[in-house]
Amino acid sequence: MSSSAAKAACPPDIPEDVFNRQLFGVIPTTIVLVLSLLTYGLRIVARVKTSQRVSWDDYLMGLGLFLSLEPTICQYLLVANGLGHHLCNVPPVQAARFARISFALQRANQPVLFCVKTSILLFYLRVPVLIMASKVFSTKAYGNFRIWVYAGIAYTFMWGLATWIVNLTTCTPIAFFYDRTIKGGTCRNQVVSGTIAAVLSLVGDIYVLVLPLPALWQLKINTRKKVAVVGIFLLGSFGCVASVIRITEILKFSPLDGTYTQVYAATWTTLEQGVAIISGNLPLLGPLFRSFFASRGNTKASSYGLSRGMTSRVGTRVSRLGFRNDGPMNVTKISASSPKLFTFERLDDDEASIYGTGADDKSIIVKKQVEVSIS
């Protein structure tokens, strides 16, 4: 009787529903994986193209991308082992394999997000518009900005370590998570612990997103260009959106029917990581976009804040604004002593361009005067 009752209580799998759920587990994951690899590759190309050294923020983003491959592979394996089916319809051997893969998928989430968020925060310390805006009124303001960046890194590390340990020890013993035949094993409420971890992660996302905005808004450029610059940094908001969606999907998860209810939670776990990587890479692709448009004869494709282009005798483009990313020629500060005579002054090494250009380039001599003609 009990066996018959259990069989009657088992909902049947609807082929179309199973197909749609498995499709969602594969297609978005694949698209985000490809874009993550592509944007990171272009990020490195942009560094090389502008004669910049690969720095810690690049290495950490690369490490985060490498670690994100583990949950992505696990996602594909879940699809092959019952994801989208009701648990009661999955063969026991396959269900046991699914549980082990699901356990493995969750191990990389915090390390990936720690690497990505820390990479973005370290990148902020290489952005001259943030450094300049913080130094406009006092050196103390710049010091405070660095403190806020390091505070963000500390929060991200503590969040990652604490939630990784809590997630790992959800069940006692740990192996009971994927082997329910162990006698005396117990598990905490996975939905509660998962939701708390995701909410704390979202708090960190918002912190990283908002941190540079006050300094960016102090830029002495017109509103349209200011909004464009701020918009570049707001690309990280896509990561926040992914985090919110993941939280809502975690709340729908039921361990009693994990193969069926885990579809969207597991998929959004991998998507959140991939979207964060993509959002962290996009702001550094500016040099490639400028080169692309320039190759098509778009002479107006210039750095942020340019009001009108000028060309020196040696072909160096300058700006009335006062700051300009000159690619391998380094960032320059420009002052006018006559209508056609400008002083180029090399900035400090830590005041590289918005894309980090010029920190290692010694080709510009401090204070070098050249005549320029308006073009």
UniProtKB/TrEMBL annotation:
InterPro entries the record matches: Rhodopsin_dom_fungi, SAT4-like
Record protein name field: Rhodopsin domain-containing protein
Keywords: Membrane, Transmembrane, Transmembrane helix
Organism of provenance: Phomopsis amygdali (Fusicoccum amygdali)
GO cellular component: membrane
Keyword Signal attributed: no
Subcellular location: Membrane
Any matching Pfam family: Fung_rhodopsin
Keyword check for Translocase: no
Domain Rhodopsin: start-end pairs: 42-290
Transmembrane segments: 23-46, 112-133, 153-178, 190-215, 227-245
Main location (coarse class): membrane
Membrane topology: Multi-pass membrane protein
Sequence similarity: Belongs to the SAT4 family.
